[in-house]
## 1
Amino acid sequence: MLYLWRRSQVPVKQLIKISRIDNLIIFLVCILISIISSYKYLLVSPLQITDIFSWLLTFTEILISSGILILVSKKENPTISSRQIILIITLLLAVQATKLAIASNISPLSMIIPPALVISQGMGSITALAFVSIASFSWPDPAVFINNNLFFILLVCASVVSLLGARIRSRAQLLQLSIFVPIGSFLSQWILIGKGSNPLINNQEFVLANGDIFSDSLLLAIVMLFTILFIPIFESIFGLLTKARLLELADKEKPLIRRLSLEAPGTFEHTLLICGLAEEATRMIGGDIDLIKTGALYHDVGKLHAPNWFIENQDGSKNPHDELDDPIKSAEVLQAHVDEGLKFARKNRLPKMIANFIPEHQGTLKMGYFFQKAKEKNLDIDENYFRYKGPIPQSKETAILMLADGCEAALRAMNINASDKEALETISNIIYSRQKDGQLDDSNLSKGEIFLIKRAFLNVWKRIRHRRIQYPTSKNNTFS
Ligand SMILES: [Fe+2]
Ligand SMILES: [Fe+2]
């Protein structure tokens, strides 16, 4: 609960922009949800003013609830796409339509819990809980009567799925959830309602002749298993980033990561160390650890386009930048590691949230080393030409990666006998320079969080100093 509370408190500066046409589609679906959830109030004859009033009330209530659901999803996922919002409200529409069509035949558990699982996996627990509350409280057909105990079981099961769904880290755990929740619902219905009698169901003939809580629970298990089968399809159509998908991408046997380890071993080592720094810092501030670990793994894949142009892969041999002796061209090679990285991301169908780490870890940082060289050569060129194209980090996770990227080379190059105070000073200087340069302006990192990040980096430095490898000099750190 503490974690959820903290997530809900994340301030958001820049909500994702949604195009007009998408806004219109979303609005129309919300209207449709409101219509199908309320039109039955108008079907009574003779129609009285109180009926029109209760229709209007229900219509407005559902419309506002749908709006709140969208706002909650945006708040929980600042980078949510319009496709994902459309998925959430389409699921709500599907649930309302199903209720209208077959509410008297199947248990509400099978209608509400499976979509809640999809939403919690893709969009998080808070959005899933908001979905569950709207879907549970609005019943389009006033004639449908729901037993209080069943309603209670529905809320408990749906809340458990919403809370656990967002934390599940493997497909195996998902399968376990789809077995244990129906067993739990069966036992609780057996205790609270009684076997064989189900007030919601008049004429249920699914699986068992007279329909009872056993067939309800079996149906729930079957629908949940089908949902799990379809989750990978939802992932690719709607760009959902589930924990299981994140962990799959973090597999070091993935072809792109294998290539990185073989063709750019220095960058691969740098990447692993950054993963450690970023993970520790993210744990300290309560961010998304799986996201940052995977993002860190792919942040420099663009270096594969020319591995030996980056200091960490040079192995002490000659530096092609010295031979080139053209700071402007060298700056272009550095920028290319971002542009090529984005191309690799597209080719390998990396989710957008992972691809964002590629440009944002460099932000609009200055390539100080080459800018200095250009000044030495008296080249009359704008400073901005020696800055990465950005954007600056838009989330806490990408900002942490930028800071880890900046500190990694400096910590690695630091004397083995350096004290903790010296290490903290180095870390603080690097972080302060990024802050002063405005790189953290859009990241929403608070001062307290930056303090925690510094402590986390120091902890990792203490851990690695005994087994670190010396890397050529610190003056070439601008190559990172
Ligand atoms: Fe980089
Ligand atoms: Fe890097």
## 2
Amino acid sequence: MRLPPEKIEEIRNSTDIVELIGAFVKLKKRGKNYVGLCPFHNEKTPSFTVSSDKQMYHCFGCGVGGNSISFMMEFEKISFIEAVKSLAEKAGISLPVYTPEYDAIANEQEELYSACKAAGLFFYHNLTETSEGKFAQEYFHKRGFSNETIRTFGLGYSPNSWDSLIKHAERENIPLQTLEKAGLVRKRDDGSYYDYFRGRAMFPIFSSTGRTVGFGARKLYEDDQLGKYLNSPETLIYNKSRILYGISHAKEAIREKDYAVLVEGYADLIRVYQEGIRNIVASSGTSLTVEQIQSISRYTKNITIVYDADSAGSKAAMRGVDLILEKDLDVRVAVLPQGDDPDSFVGKYGGEKFLALLKNSVSFVDFIAQAFEREGYLKTPEGQTKAVRTIIQTISKIKDGIKRNFYIQLVAEKYGLYESLLHQELEKYIKIEKSRSEYQLVRDEIDEAQLETDTQNLNGSKKTVTTTENIPLAERDILHAMIDGGRKVTEFVFSNFSPEQFSHPYAKILAQEIHSLYETADELNAAMLIDSITETPHLQVEEIEAIKKLLTDLVFSQYELSKRWAEEGTTIIKGDAMQIARDALRTILLQTVQKKLEVNQQSMKEASKRGEDVSHYLQTHTQLLEEKKFLSSEKCFQK
Ligand SMILES: [Zn+2]
């Protein structure tokens, strides 16, 4: 779906970027701007800058930047259109329901979303309003789910038949191919379709923005031959390693409480949530992934894992601890009594007791020690050594040296061991860890090199320019001046210079974007440019990223020429974009003339060696000198 640019502009204008980002990042006023710790890379001193008058952000550490829409896209990991929608919602602006121009992939995604939404409503209706659904309702009630909870999580029932969803979809004009792509129906060999979920209790799975992307389905009938739980397959909108069950319901509470409770299953989550503990998410189905941790880390740096006391549960928890520490988050573990999961625990003892369990959660050091203790390891010196080694190995995953030392001290005290000994052991693991990550670095480089060769083969030529760092200073300044100076400066530049004359490919693309915006829009500013670049269909993802970085880097930096001039002791009227544009343009044109002069002279020399007539070279030479003189004079660019 494509929205008219004016609508996007309206939405962006009604959003205050400082307020928007301030809800996620602690911002402090510094001069005209606001600064904070960058949410996109790890840092200790703030280099993430937000400008209220420009309505843009830029990180001087990692180079990310953009406007409020791109912030939402990157922070929430959502598409352009989703970001616009969410900002529109915040600003109370209604969007056109349907526009005829569709973007192919966004369109397909939207179709899958609406198919899943329709299916979710259908299942909910079957649960709450049909006689067949009574049976499933009883099942949910027996599990302790209230009607309010059923509504909150959109639980449902898939009728015990081969075609009830299919028939419903036909009534709703949803193509069966779309249902198939959404993993809701399957195709038989003869080409006909059948419902995938039959006679099951349905748990919709939501994206972080709260849209239904798939389903978990629990068996209800004894004669159901399929497994206890069935899940939607991975689809265009359902990426299992990315989705964290419950995050859309929990994110506000997680931010507020500044920690997330992590459980395994969705039934666990729902039961605990019902008790008013809302900062809870579930890895559901998969073992915890790096992407899921990243998704939590947007809201808090603290995770409390709740796991079953059995050995499989402990192992999963230990793996989770390592992963969380590697991602630089803090982790605690709450261990349930033997034989209980969060669901059954809350059923037996209630929410207060669960809160107490969370309160009594232990550090990962104690958790590992306790696990070894339960297995009887701590009775022997060998077992103790093994436990300490495991703990040290886990500590080695922590990147922060101060934190590592803190835990080493803790272990030393606990086990009456010498710190120095523990440090020796730690060094060993850090080395292993380091060589592992170095290996990964080398691998990445190889992959990158491979990628580059692939691109070369594809284009048939070597791709040498991949960074924005080698853009000529004058070209940077011209782009900068146009962005700063708006239509007036842009008009001046393009009446003397075309986008194609930029030598650096990224500068050229940015110039082209400025040009097309100049031709189509009444206004011209950086925030608008970010949108049009993000939405440019023919650009590669890397190109879009590089150009966005270039753009925000320009907006948040000084003019290159003025920097250089400051060094040379010349003063310049700050912020006079027109003057900068004139000077930079003159520099480029002078350089071009100079180059032409050199080439011409070389050709003249060769021609005279061969004894040819050189008069037309002389003529060109004179012309170029004239041009050079004009460009250097005060008259240049004066109207
Ligand atoms: Zn950064």
